[in-house]
Structure formats: C-alpha cells, structure tokens
Amino acid sequence: MPSMRETLLSIFAADEPDYDRAVALGTAALPTIAEMIDEEPHRAAAAVYVAGQIPAHESLEVIARAARREHPLVRANAAGALRDWATHPECADDLDAAFEIVAPLLDDADPSVRKFAHRALAVLPAHGSAVPDSRATIPRLRR
Questions:
Q1: For residue 43, what pLDDT band results from cuts at 50, 70 and 90?
Q2: How far is C-alpha 18 from the chain's CA centre?
Q3: How high does pLDDT run on average in the chain?
Q4: How would you write the chain as a 3-class SS string?
Q5: Per-residue pLDDT tens for 57-75?
Q6: Count of domains in the chain?
Q7: Range of the domain at 129
Q8: Distance of CA 66 to the CA centre of its chain
Q9: Whose CA is closest to 10, among 74, 60, 1?
Q10: pTM
Q11: CB-based burial of residue 90 (10 Å sphere; 0-12 exposed, 13-18 middle, 19+ buried)?
C-alpha cells in the first residue's frame, strides 16, 4: 500500500489531478499536505488547494503556512483556499482566525495575491465574522 505522500504525489502529478480523491483522504492527509507546503511552488499550490477543501481547523493552519510562502503562486492559492475553506459551515468558529490570515495578503506586492485575498475577504462577513467592509480594500487592488 502506498504511503500518504506517494498517494498525494501521484494525484498532483497527473495531467488532470483528481483533487476530489485527495480531499477524500480527509484530515489524515493534512500532516503530509502541510509538509508539501514547503516544497516546489506548483506542488505547494496544489496542496494548499486541497487543504482549503477539508473543513477542519488543521486545514487553516496549513493555509496560514502557505500564506507566508515567498512564491506568489502559493500565496494566491492560499487566499483562494481560505475562501473555499471559509464557506464550510463547520469552519464558522474559526472565521476570525481566517481574517488574520487574509488581512496581510490584501497588501501583498503581487496583484494576483491581492485579488484572491479580496475574494476571500468577501466571504467572511457572510458568516458573521467581525471584518471591515470589503469595499475599503478596493484601492489596494489597483496598485
């Protein structure tokens, strides 16, 4: 039987990755996904995408780690993953922590990171989180 790492690597290496299969591995995959965040940018981006589909507090920790990566592809995917993660009802208690992750990305040097951060911010108020009006972030996107 292949290890969790081997399974995830085979999923991510496919021409058309079967992300649903990776998500179905659930929280058991999160420690390996967390390790992949520090690997090459395309693998890290795929890993953080999967983390955003798993409604668990541990996923938020993985997303936060990806949001601090140097490569903009990984940070942009972290913001996108945060948006997906925040839409799960099971995550409602952690939305303030999610805001703390997305807030620095609103001022990121890369415009794609700022764009995805703004999209993530837009879903947070719908869940009752104490976040500022997202319209205030629009000037930041136009840099």
A1: very high
A2: 17
A3: 89
A4: CCCHHHHHHHHHHCCCCCHHHHHHCHHHHHHHHHHHCCCCHHHHHHHHHHHHHCCCHHHHHHHHHHHCCCCHHHHHHHHHHHHHHHCCHHHHHHHHHHHHHHHHHHHCCCHHHHHHHHHHHHHCHHHCCCCCCHHHHHHHHCC
A5: 999 999 999 999 999 999 9
A6: 1
A7: 4-141
A8: 7
A9: 1
A10: 0.86
A11: exposed
pLDDT of residue 125: 62
- CATH code of the domain in which 103 resides: 1.25.10.10
Reading the block at residue 12, the tokens are: 């991510």
Per-residue pLDDT for 33 more than 50?
A: yes
Residue in the structure block whose two tokens are 């929280």? 27
Hey, what are 88's tokens? 């799960």
What does the angle CA 70 – CA 87 – CA 89 come to, to the nearest 5 degrees?
130
Q: How far apart are CA 101 and CA 66, in angstroms?
A: 10
